Structure formats: structure tokens, C-alpha cells
């Protein structure tokens, strides 16, 4: 299973990196979302993989590592806030620069 | 007391600026601090003359070996007296030089700061501290040379000097750190006693080279002398003080201070004496050809510094004594000559020796007063320069060297002495006689007040007194200073024992009766050279013009050009490219150490693969790939992104993280909603614009990143784990009063982290609020999407509207339940807050903002604040009970009908988290949502 999760992490990271290298703000937002999924999952996997072992005392014989889970939990919420922030930035830049190129200058297109 | 001496100039620092508009005499108060410091030093003088060393220590950063440690022995006392004593006269002189000029205040402030830095160098006991003052003198000197910043010549001269002395300072830093590593201490007391240790260390060549580089650049030794002549664009008091008496002597001071460590080593003799003799000859030779009075004096200073360096290089005690003696003499005759040049410059409007002639008629007093220092410089009898020059020749004969060098050095020394007679004659005769003035800008020359001459009188008297009774100094302070400088480990005298001062034996002069003959020869040689000046000048004019400053400027321009190109190449304004740099840098720095990893597969037992999970993972990976391949079709890519998030939720649930699953699920819903909202204002497709090259390059980078992360996570996951979580698992129930360890960590063990994180959340929400505040997205970008979206914009499907209303109370109930059980079962403030926010935003989606706002409170910003306040107050509450911040407390209670239940202060903290999350999420959603209503954005919400 570990090998599959590792490959998944690789694919998520690669897709995220590829997308944040694109020239349009929306692609970058999508890329950041995928990349934060990858990062969360990576942090989570640092506690190793466990099945049927929630970190609740008394619920199971074994317990998964609760610390990465606590870290990832807050990371998810903050990631959401940051996504919202980046999205608003993207909207703002479209409004003020009249295009959605990350460099603010669009060489190929008529201004929208 | 030592600290007071050091701080005196600094205490008066703001004075001149405050008194800028006060009468002239008030600004003159600036000469008080050096005067007081001078008197304080004189008071301490008898003690240090006996060979005692006064120390003052204040630990500053002991971990770095850095302390404010001061040391006053006879050597530092000699230098400190020079600095403050000459300082007083320069202040007095400057008072007349800057009479009535507005820049006087700035000058006094800078010169006082410089004085403090200079005193710091000579009084420092800690080498690092000394370096700090050393660099300060370079910086203040930069400001003083560039005092007239509106003139290009000043700016360039200042830049050249900063470049050379600053570079030397860096070398010195390296040398000092090496010494510190060898000796294990930066205190001078330890270092001076570690001669053997340092000389036998394999790093000795580096230490010596770097320290000498620092000293030579500061003291304008060949080939670093080039900055000094260009520093003459400074006001004359600055030249008189910094560039003849003090700053250039800092390098000499360093050589003498470290004399016990280095002297006697062969390399020390060859380098120090060698550079010294070259500097002596080059300086005195070039000086003859200088037409600028101050330029001539600058080169003369260079040659005298070379002479002192040469003496230090001999490494004998006698030579060291003579070096100190000449250092004092040089300060005494060079400072008044600079002042004379300043007076003439101000009176005549130029200091070009081709124009300034025959001044004796206009300034008879000045002529007499400057004759004495000039004659001292040339080494005429009965003046101080006479003795130092004679002793110099004696020492060059008695040097430790043998063979060819033994004959060569005295010859070169005599040659240098002849040159110095030549330029002294040129300066004096040319200025005061030599026919009539030529085209003076100011005619007739303005006579300065006679009070201006007071410092000149003082210096002339000093030159005569030391010329008649040299033993006053030689057997007094100089002998004590030489002894203090030359403490070798075997010669170290305990401070309390009887003074043991080796005085210089003046009878050597009697031993060499032909010395007077040599003096006469040098004088005649100089005279001959001056008489033949026309021929010499003609010859000199034919030499190629080597102007250091021009070459330096050219070099600077080239360097600036290069760096501009480099900056433009790297920083071209393209964010896309910056992201690339960041990613590649991250890859290189994380990838580099990973290359060395041989075993990727650890020895932890792998989890078996089941078909269902494997299928899910493959599907998830496929969707992530789909996002990047289909990103041109934005809505499709967005839907795939949402699906990716949902699958990750399932993944968390599958791998024993119920809390994460719940959180991810509720966040995912709202994140996709926000992106949907945004997409309605953005183009619906991304153009295919990446070139083939860029596309392949990005695919390669992305693949490397992906493979790297995959390998790294595989390597970690297959290795056995040891985690600090065992502590949390063991103490969760007993210490935190909850069985859900994830939640207990969040609200209790790592409560401070959580407090920080909800603060970040709150700030992000406020930033979104602020950015959307004035956002006026009047029309959607283009028509195609208007067609696309128009059908949905205001129509709220009946089915959803009907269903949303009963869902709200149910959802709130669920979130309350999730919140309350969070301490013991999956749930908690974060998750409950997200569920509440999702339920409320469903009302927006189903019925529209206007409908919702009539029916709900929308003070989201106060809500966010309240949440933070609750969480923070809970934390502070534990302080009331004398416990550390955020300590939690819990207890069990019995209630009728309900049974036993638990109350924990952590629940209160979690309530703060809950409120913050609800407030922040709704603040974001509502303000983004209002942008897209058909009635326009409307007022801000929250």
C-alpha cells in the first residue's frame, strides 16, 4: 500500500507543480490546491499508514500517530483561508490589469 | 573611567546639531569632549607609565566571545592622547575654517563620532570590538571625505577610500576570527601571550596575510595607498585629523598592538619591512611632483607611514621605540602643515602650487609658523624630525637582517630622506617665495584672523621642544608605550611589581658621528633635486598618466553594468519565472542530500494492498493528472479538483484519521464554492500559449518534483517510527481529560499553536474582506460566459430552497453535537465551525444573499474577534491560577437525569476556535458571494 500512496503523492505533487508554473492565475490556484493536498497527505504519511486505528483512546487497540493529524487538521483550515485569499487576489488583478496573466502583462491576447 | 573616556565624544554627539542655530561660540563647545578626555587621560598617565594595564570589562554577548572590554596601557594611552590632543586643536581650527558656514554642525557631529570610534580602536581589549570600531572609522571617514556630496570628485574619492579600507576591514575580520580560533579567545591579554601558539599554527600564513592586509589598507601602504590622495577632497580639518594624525595611524596601531604576536617571524620582517620601504620611496618620490598642496602632503604622509611600517618590520625593540617616536613627531608636524594648506586654500581660493607663489609677502606670520614643521619634516637639526630621522638610519643599520638587504635598506632609507627634503623644499619655497602668484581666484588673498594661527603656534613649539629635548618623550611615554607594546610572554610584567622600563639609549647617535654627514648629504640631495625641478617635471609629464581614480571608476562602471545585467536577467518582472527559480532552488537543496541515500526501502512491514483502496488511489491519481491535462477547460478542471479533494477525504477516513476526513470534507465544499464564484468572473478557458520548450521544461521539473516526493515519502513510510506522540497518547486522558488525542493536542498540548493558527485564519479572512471591499466587478469579462451563467445567476431552484430551510436546524444540531463530543470522539471546534458555516452558506446558495441577510445577523468581523478573544481569555485564565498560559483544567460532575458529565476549560478554548472558524469562513464566503449578485456588489458584509 505504501508504494501506491507514494506514487499518488508523486502524481499530486507533479500536477500541482506543473500547474503553478502555468501563466494564468486560475491554473495557479488549481495547482496550489493540488499541491496543498499533496503537502497535507505527505505530512499525514509521516505518521505512517494505519488501518482501523483512530487516535481515540478506548476505540481501538492500536492508535495512529495523532500529531501529524493535528498538524494537518489546522493546515487544511488555513489552506482554505489561503485559497480564498489567492482567489480574491486573482479577481482583483483581473479587474485592475484587465487580464489574468500572472505577470500582469498579456502578450497574446486582447485585453478582456 | 575608561568607558567615560570612550563615551565622552558620543555624549556630545547631538550637541552641535542642536546648537546649529546658536551663536558661533556655542558650536565651539564641541571641542570640550576631547579636551576633557585628554585631561582624564593625563590623570591616568602616571599609573600606566609604571607599566600597569587598566582593564574594564562588561560582558555583552558572552556566547560569541563578545564583550565590551577596554584596556588602557601606555601604548593605548599614547594613541588616545594623540587622538584627543590633536582633536582639540583640529576642533579649534575647524571653528575658524567653518566660520559661519551652515555645514559646521554636521562636521562637528561627524568628527566627534569619528573620535569616539578611533578611541574605541585604541582602547579595545576585545579584538571583535576593535573591529567594530575599525569599520566605524571607515564608514565615518567615507562620510567625511564625501562631505561636499554635491561634488563628483568628493563622492568618487569617498567611494574609492571606502572600497579599499572597507575591503581591508573584511580581510581583518577574517584574520581576527582565525586568531580567535587558534587562541580560543578574542581578548588581547590572551592573544598577546599566545605568540608560540599562533606562530606554530598551520594557519599562520593566513592570519598574518589577512591582518597585514587590514593594516596596510588602512595605513595607505603601497599598493593600497591610492585612496589617500583622493581623500584630499575632504575639508582640510578632516585631512589634518583623519588623514595625517589619526585614521591612517590605526593600521600602524594594529601592527604595534600585535607586535608581540608576530615580531621575530621571518615573514613579518620581509612583508612589513618590504612594503614599508617601497611605500616610503614611492610616497616621497611622487610627492615631489604633486602640484596640489594637499596632494603633496598626502603622498608625504604615505611615505612617513611607510617609514614607520619599515621600522616596525625590523622587529627589534629599539626600532619599535623609534617608530613610536616618529609617529608622534609626524602627527606634530603634519597636522600644522595641513592647516597651513587650508589657510592658504581659503585665502587664495586654490591650492595649486603652480598658482600659489610668493605668499610670504601676504602671510609673514604663517610663513614663520609653517617653516618649523616643514623643517621638522625635512629633518633639519634641533627639530623633532631630525632625531627621528637620525635614529631611523641608525636602526636601519642595526636591523636584524644581513647580506645584501643589510646594505640595501640603509641606502634606500637615505634616498627616501633625500626625497623628503626635496618635497619639503618644494612645499615651502613654492608657496611662500618662487616669484609672484599666478591667476589666483581670490585677489588679494583674504587674511584670516590671527587666532586661526593658535594651533600652529602650539605645534611649532612642540616640534622645537621635542627637537631640543627628545629624551622628554623618548625616555618617558614613548619608552613606556614601547614596553607595553612589546610584552612578550617571558617579558610580561605583573601589574603590581616594580616598573621595569627599557629606555632608548640616545648615545647611539654619538656612536655614529658620521650621521650628521649623512643628514647633510640628504639635505644637499634634496636641494639639488628641487633646483633641477624644471627638468624633473618635464620628465614626469612624459610618463604615462596613471590616475587610480579613473581606473577605479572604469572598474566600478563595468561592475555596475554587469550587476545590472545580472539583475535584469534574474529579476525580469515575471512572476512565472520567479516561481520557477523558487521551485528549482527547492529541488536542488532538498534533492542534493537525498542523492546520497542508498536504501530507499526501509525494513518496516508493508501494509497489504486491497483492491478497493488501490482502485481509489489509482482513480485519485488519474483525476489529479486530468486536472493538469485539462486545465485549459477551466470548469472541467475545477470539477476534477473538487473530486480529488473528496477522494482525499475518503483516503483520510480509510487510514484512521476521522477528524481529518470530517475537516477535509467540509472545507472542500466551501473551497470549490469559492473557486466557482471566482470563475464566473474569469475567462472560461486558458489559452494554449506555452511554447513547446517551456511546456517540456515544466513537465520535466514537475516530474522531478513528483518523483522526489514519492521516493522521499516511500523511504519514510517504510521505516519504523519513533514519535513524540507516545507521550500524547499516554497523557491524553489523565492530563487533558479527553480520549480524542487529536483534539486534545489541538486544544491542550499544543494549544498555543492552535491559537496562532486561528489568528492566521482570522487575518486571512480580514484580508479577503479588505480586498473585496472596493472590488467592483461591473460586468462579467465576456459574452460567451454571460450566456453560460445567465441562466443560473438569480434563479434559485425551488427544490433546493424548500430543502435548505429544514436542513439548517438539523445541521446546527449536528454541529453542536460534533462540537461537544469533540474532546472524546472525532469532532471539535474546527469541524463543528466548518459544518455550521457550510449550513449557513447553503442558505445563501439556495435563496440568495438578500433573502438570507434579512433573516440573519451578519456581524462576522466582531464574531471573528469574539472567537479570538474567547480563546485568548481562556489561555490567560490559567495565569490567574498561577499556571502557565493555556493550562487546561477539567472535572467530572453529576447532574440529575443526565448523569455524569465532564467539563473542561479546553472546551471553552474550543468554543473560541469554533466561533473564529464560523466568523472567518462566513466573512470570506459572504463577501465573495455578494460580488456576483445581479444587483451589483452592494455594501460590504460583516
Automatic annotation (TrEMBL), chain A:
Species this chain originates from: Aliidiomarina haloalkalitolerans
Instruction: Indicate where this protein resides in the cell.
Output: Cell membrane
Ranges annotated as spanning the membrane: 26-49, 70-91
Looking up Pfam families in the UniProt record yields: Oxidored_q2 (PF00420)
Q: Which family does it belong to?
A: Belongs to the CPA3 antiporters (TC 2.A.63) subunit C family.
Task: Provide the topology term for how it sits in the membrane.
Answer: Multi-pass membrane protein
Protein's UniProt keywords contain Transcription regulation: no
- InterPro entries under this entry? CPA3_antiporter_subunitC, NUOK/Mnh_C1-like
- UniProtKB keywords: Cell membrane, Membrane, Transmembrane, Transmembrane helix
- Name used for this protein in its record: Na+/H+ antiporter subunit C
Gene Ontology CC: plasma membrane
From TrEMBL, chain B:
Record-level GO cellular component terms: plasma membrane
Tell me where in or outside the cell this protein is found.
Cell membrane; Membrane
InterPro entries, per the entry: CPA3_Na-H_Antiporter_A, MnhB, MrpA_C/MbhD, MrpA_C/MbhE, ND/Mrp_TM, Proton_antipo_N
- Indicate the segments forming the MrpA C-terminal/MbhE domain, all copies: 694-776
Boundaries of every NADH:quinone oxidoreductase/Mrp antiporter transmembrane domain copy? 124-399
Alphabetically sorted, this entry's keywords are:
Antiport, Cell membrane, Ion transport, Membrane, Transmembrane, Transmembrane helix, Transport
Q: Which residues form the MrpA C-terminal/MbhD domain?
A: 619-684
Primary location class: membrane
Q: Which Pfam families match?
A: MbhD, MbhE, MnhB, Proton_antipo_M, Proton_antipo_N
Q: Which residues cross the membrane?
A: 29-46, 76-95, 107-124, 130-148, 160-184, 204-228, 240-262, 268-289, 296-316, 322-344, 365-383, 403-429, 450-469, 514-532, 578-597, 609-630, 637-655, 661-679, 699-717, 758-777, 798-818, 830-851, 863-881, 901-925
Which GO molecular function annotations are given, in alphabetical order?
antiporter activity
N-terminal signal peptide: none
Keyword Coiled coil tagged: no
Q: Which residues form the Na+/H+ antiporter MnhB subunit-related protein domain?
A: 800-922
Query: What GO terms in the biological process aspect are recorded for it?
Result: monoatomic ion transport
The record gives the membrane topology as: Multi-pass membrane protein
UniProt-recorded name of the protein? Monovalent cation/H+ antiporter subunit A
Amino acid at each position: 500500500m505504501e508504494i501506491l500512496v507514494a506514487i499518488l503523492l508523486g502524481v499530486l505533487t507533479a500536477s500541482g507543480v506543473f500547474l503553478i508554473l502555468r501563466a494564468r492565475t486560475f491554473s495557479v490556484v488549481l495547482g496550489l490546491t493540488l499541491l496543498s493536498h499533496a503537502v497535507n497527505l505527505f505530512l499525514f504519511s509521516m505518521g505512517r499508514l494505519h488501518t482501523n486505528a483512530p487516535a481515540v483512546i478506548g476505540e481501538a487497540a492500536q492508535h495512529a500517530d495523532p500529531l501529524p493529524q493535528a498538524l494537518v487538521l489546522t493546515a487544511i483550515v488555513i489552506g482554505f483561508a489561503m485559497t480564498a485569499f489567492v482567489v480574491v487576489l486573482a479577481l482583483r488583478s483581473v479587474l485592475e490589469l484587465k487580464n489574468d496573466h500572472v505577470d500582469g502583462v498579456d502578450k497574446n491576447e486582447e485585453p478582456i | 573611567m575608561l568607558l567615560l573616556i570612550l563615551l565622552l565624544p558620543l555624549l556630545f554627539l547631538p550637541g552641535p546639531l542642536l546648537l546649529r542655530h546658536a551663536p558661533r561660540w556655542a558650536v565651539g563647545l564641541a571641542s570640550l569632549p576631547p579636551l576633557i578626555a585628554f585631561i582624564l587621560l593625563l590623570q591616568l598617565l602616571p599609573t600606566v607609565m609604571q607599566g600597569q594595564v587598566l582593564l574594564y570589562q562588561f560582558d555583552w554577548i558572552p556566547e560569541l566571545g563578545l564583550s565590551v572590554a577596554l584596556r588602557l596601557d601606555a601604548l593605548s594611552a599614547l594613541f588616545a592622547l594623540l587622538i584627543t590632543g590633536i582633536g582639540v586643536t583640529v576642533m579649534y581650527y575647524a571653528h575658524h575654517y567653518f566660520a559661519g558656514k551652515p555645514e559646521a554642525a554636521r562636521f562637528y557631529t561627524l568628527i566627534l563620532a569619528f573620535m569616539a570610534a578611533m578611541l574605541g580602536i585604541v582602547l579595545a581589549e576585545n579584538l571583535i570590538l576593535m573591529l567594530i570600531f575599525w569599520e566605524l572609522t571607515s564608514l565615518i571617514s567615507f562620510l567625511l571625505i564625501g562631505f561636499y556630496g554635491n561634488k563628483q570628485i568628493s563622492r568618487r574619492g569617498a567611494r574609492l577610500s571606502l572600497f579599499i579600507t572597507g575591503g581591508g576591514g573584511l580581510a581583518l575580520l577574517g584574520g581576527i576570527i582565525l586568531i580567535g580560533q587558534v587562541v580560543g579567545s578574542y581578548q588581547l591579554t590572551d592573544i598577546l601571550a599566545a605568540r608560540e601558539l599562533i606562530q606554530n599554527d598551520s594557519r599562520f600564513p593566513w592570519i598574518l596575510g589577512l591582518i597585514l592586509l587590514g593594516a596596510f589598507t588602512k595605513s595607505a601602504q603601497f599598493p593600497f595607498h591610492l585612496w589617500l590622495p583622493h581623500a584630499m577632497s575632504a575639508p582640510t580639518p578632516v585631512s589634518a585629523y583623519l588623514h595625517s594624525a589619526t585614521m591612517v595611524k590605526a593600521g600602524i596601531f594594529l601592527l604595534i598592538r600585535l607586535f608581540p604576536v608576530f615580531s621575530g617571524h621571518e615573514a613579518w620582517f620581509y612583508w612589513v619591512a618590504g612594503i614599508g620601504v617601497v611605500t616610503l620611496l614611492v610616497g616621497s618620490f611622487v610627492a615631489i611632483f604633486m602640484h596640489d598642496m594637499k596632494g603633496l602632503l598626502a603622498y608625504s604622509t604615505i611615505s612617513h607611514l611607510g617609514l614607520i611600517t619599515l621600522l616596525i618590520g625590523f622587529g627589534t625593540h629599539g626600532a619599535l621605540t623609534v617608530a613610536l617616536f616618529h609617529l608622534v613627531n609626524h602627527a606634530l608636524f603634519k597636522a600644522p602643515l595641513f592647516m597651513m594648506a587650508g589657510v592658504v586654500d581659503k585665502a587664495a581660493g586654490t591650492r595649486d602650487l603652480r598658482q600659489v607663489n610668493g605668499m610670504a609677502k601676504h602671510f609673514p606670520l604663517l610663513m614663520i609658523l609653517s617653516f618649523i614643521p616643514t623643517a621638522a619634516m625635512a629633518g633639519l637639526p634641533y627639530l623633532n624630525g631630525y632625531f627621528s630621522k637620525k635614529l631611523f638610519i641608525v636602526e636601519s643599520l642595526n636591523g636584524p637582517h644581513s647580506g645584501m638587504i643589510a646594505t640595501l635598506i640603509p641606502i634606500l632609507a637615505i634616498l627616501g630622506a633625500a626625497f623628503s627634503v626635496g618635497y619639503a623644499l618644494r612645499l615651502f619655497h613654492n608657496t611662500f617665495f618662487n616669484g609672484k602668484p599666478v591667476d589666483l581666484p581670490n585677489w588679494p588673498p583674504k587674511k584670516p584672523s590671527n587666532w586661526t594661527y593658535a594651533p600652529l603656534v602650539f605645534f611649532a613649539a612642540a616640534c622645537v621642544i621635542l627637537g631640543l629635548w627628545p629624551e622628554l618623550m623618548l625616555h618617558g611615554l614613548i619608552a613606556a608605550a614601547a614596553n607595553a607594546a612589546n610584552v612578550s610572554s617571558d617579558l610580561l610584567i605583573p601589574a603590581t611589581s616594580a616598573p621595569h622600563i627599557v629606555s632608548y639609549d640616545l648615545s647611539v647617535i654619538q656612536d655614529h658621528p658620521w650621521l650628521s654627514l649623512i643628514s647633510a648629504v640628504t639635505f644637499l640631495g634634496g636641494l639639488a633635486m628641487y633646483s633641477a625641478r624644471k627638468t624633473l617635471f618635464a620628465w614626469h609629464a612624459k610618463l604615462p598618466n596613471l590616475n587610480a581614480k579613473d581606473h577605479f571608476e572604469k572598474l566600478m562602471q563595468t561592475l555596475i553594468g554587469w550587476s545590472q545585467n545580472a539583475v535584469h536577467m534574474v529579476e525580469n518582472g515575471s512572476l512565472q519565472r520567479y516561481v520557477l527559480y523558487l521551485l528549482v532552488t527547492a529541488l536542488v537543496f532538498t534533492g542534493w542530500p537525498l542523492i546520497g541515500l542508498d536504501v530507499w526501502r526501509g525494513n518496516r512491514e508493508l501494509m497489504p494492498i486491497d483492491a478497493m483502496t488501490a482502485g481509489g488511489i489509482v482513480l485519485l491519481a488519474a483525476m489529479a493528472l486530468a486536472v493538469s491535462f485539462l486545465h485549459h477547460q477551466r470548469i472541467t478542471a475545477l470539477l476534477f479538483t473538487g473530486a480529488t479533494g473528496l477522494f482525499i477525504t475518503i483516503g483520510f477516513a480509510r487510514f484512521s484519521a476521522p477528524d481529518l476526513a470530517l475537516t477535509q470534507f467540509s472545507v472542500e465544499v466551501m473551497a470549490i464554492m469559492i473557486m466557482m464564484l471566482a470563475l464566473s468572473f474569469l475567462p472560461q478557458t486558458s489559452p494554449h500559449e506555452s511554447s513547446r520548450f517551456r511546456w517540456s521544461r515544466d513537465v520535466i521539473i514537475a516530474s522531478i518534483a513528483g518523483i522526489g516526493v514519492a521516493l522521499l515519502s516511500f523511504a519514510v513510510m517504510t521505516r519504523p517510527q519513533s514519535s513524540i506522540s507516545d507521550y500524547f497518547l499516554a497523557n491524553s486522558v489523565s492530563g487533558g481529560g479527553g480520549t480524542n488525542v487529536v483534539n486534545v493536542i489541538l486544544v491542550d498540548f499544543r494549544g498555543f499553536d492552535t491559537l496562532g493558527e486561528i489568528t492566521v485564519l482570522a487575518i486571512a479572512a480580514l484580508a479577503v474582506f479588505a480586498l473585496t471591499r472596493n472590488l467592483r466587478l461591473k460586468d462579467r469579462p465576456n459574452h460567451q460566459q454571460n450566456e453560460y451563467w445567465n441562466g443560473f445567476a438569480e434563479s434559485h431552484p425551488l427544490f433546493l430552497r424548500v430543502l435548505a430551510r429544514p436542513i439548517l436546524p438539523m445541521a446546527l444540531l449536528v454541529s453542536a453535537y460534533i462540537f461537544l463530543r469533540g474532546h472524546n470522539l472525532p469532532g471539535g471546534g474546527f469541524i463543528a465551525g466548518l459544518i455550521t458555516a457550510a449550513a449557513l452558506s447553503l442558505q445563501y446558495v439556495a435563496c440568495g444573499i438578500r433573502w438570507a441577510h434579512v433573516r440573519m445577523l451578519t456581524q462576522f468581523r466582531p464574531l471573528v474577534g469574539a472567537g479570538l478573544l474567547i480563546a485568548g481569555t481562556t489561555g490567560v485564565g490559567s495565569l490567574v491560577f498561577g499556571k502557565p498560559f493555556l493550562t487546561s483544567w477539567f472535572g467530572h460532575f453529576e447532574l440529575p437525569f443526565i448523569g455524569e458529565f465532564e467539563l473542561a476549560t479546553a472546551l471553552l478554548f474550543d468554543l473560541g476556535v469554533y466561533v473564529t472558524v464560523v466568523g472567518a469562513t462566513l466573512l470570506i464566503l459572504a463577501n465573495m458571494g455578494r460580488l456576483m449578485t445581479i444587483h451589483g456588489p452592494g455594501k460590504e458584509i460583516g
